[in-house]
């Protein structure tokens, strides 16, 4: 046992003698196949030698015959073992150098496909006078073994020595680095770790200044700027965007990841807002502008979409396709320049040769063809088409090279031939005479209705005797209604009265009885 203790003490002494060397630790750190050395560089190495001493028993087994000398040979073994393979066994990096590359030679192929990818969207959530809070998103690829956790490393600005903050990997995507010195600038990076190795680190672009942020930066975008901001060519662009943050944040404007041309775009920043101003807008000013408000590593971003428009050009290839009757068909193609805005429609105008004035025939036509109707016969027409966008009508119009002449068509009126109907009809009474009783001295009337064509001749008779021109009787016929007035009748006027209708086709008659009573 004393001999074995001496062996361990002798095995540790060369390791301590090699610690002062700066080159050996740097070479040894990436060599161990386990990822424990990568996950926590500040962790004590006591746990690492333990697995390394398990392969060392080979020299100890060689040393086991030494104890056969029992005590007397125990002091002899240390000098024999010092030059022997014991120091070489403990200085495993030297002899294990050749096998070490052989192990990575078989492993690099697997880690290349199974090591996780870099964490995403690394950002600073909060900064205080002695801590920094980070957030990020999980990597897209975690590898076949699965993700063991993340390792956060820091490096002071101006230095190249990265130090792991956490001793063991953790699975949360939020971490707070504490016990930092106020006023320091540190670089931060995060690695994803699995059993197959560590990912390429995700690093913050800018160093983080350790000082208290009283209020995180935030852009308060006005509602009308959350959609596309439209202006005409030549108009002024004046936008004021408020923000918040303490201490006063840094304001950065970019367009296409490039800084703005301050000779054309004026930017004025205050403690609470930033003003974007262009005196005369041009179409080249259209695009997406990015506003960044930053305090140390914490920042907020906003996108402004500016669209500078102008009237479109005239339509192209206007043609007079066809003319028929009172109608004309037109076709054209969209303008070459839409004025940096969508074409909403077309306005079609017509002009007759006599007056020479233009009148709108069609508005907001969304197609590139149309038919103009209700043209006047005998007139000659020309047509022009304007394009229209959000800025208005085009300054110029496309005019037809040909004219449309609405010709007169010769028509003759041919009345419809209606077959003549045979209206001939013999007399026929539709309403007969009715018996009547009257009082002496009071005039009375007899009525009947008759039809027939030609109009029949009406003959009145009393007791089968024709009543001729007698002032006592008044006979009338109107619209087929026959009437006989008997003026102041007396008992002698009583009898049978007959109305007879005669025409070339025949005759008809009706009778009635008249009674005359005396006065009581």
Explain the overall architecture.
Belongs to the immunoglobulin superfamily. MyBP family. One of its GO terms (biological process) is cell adhesion. This is Myosin-binding protein H. Binds to myosin; probably involved in interaction with thick myofilaments in the A-band. Pfam families: fn3, I-set. With about 525 residues, this protein is mainly β. Strands 3, 4, 6, 7, 8 and 9 form a 6-stranded antiparallel sheet that branches. The chain is built from 10 helices and 36 strands. Residues about 1-110 have low confidence and may be disordered. The chain is about 15% helix and about 40% strand. The chain is elongated. The chain folds into 4 domains: about 125-210, Immunoglobulin-like (Sandwich); about 215-310, Immunoglobulins (Immunoglobulin-like), CATH 2.60.40; about 315-405, Immunoglobulins (Immunoglobulin-like); about 425-515, Immunoglobulin-like, CATH 2.60.40.10. The longest helix is centred in the N-terminal third of the chain and has 17 residues, at about 1-20.
Secondary-structure topology with pairs:
Elements lengths: L1 H17 L4 H6 L7 H4 L9 H5 L3 H7 L13 H5 L3 H6 L2 H4 L2 H8 L2 H6 L5 E8 L4 E6 L11 E8 L6 E2 L9 E4 L7 E10 L2 E2 L3 E2 L4 E2 L5 E5 L9 E4 L4 E10 L3 E6 L2 E2 L6 E4 L3 E6 L8 E9 L2 E12 L6 E9 L2 E7 L11 E8 L5 E8 L3 E4 L7 E10 L2 E2 L4 E2 L4 E2 L19 E7 L4 E4 L4 E10 L3 E6 L2 E2 L6 E6 L2 E6 L8 E9 L2 E12 L3
Parallel strand pairs: 11-18, 29-36
Antiparallel strand pairs: 1-2, 2-5, 3-4, 3-6, 6-7, 6-8, 6-9, 10-12, 12-16, 13-14, 13-17, 15-16, 17-18, 19-20, 20-23, 21-22, 21-24, 24-25, 24-26, 24-27, 28-30, 30-34, 31-32, 31-35, 33-34, 35-36
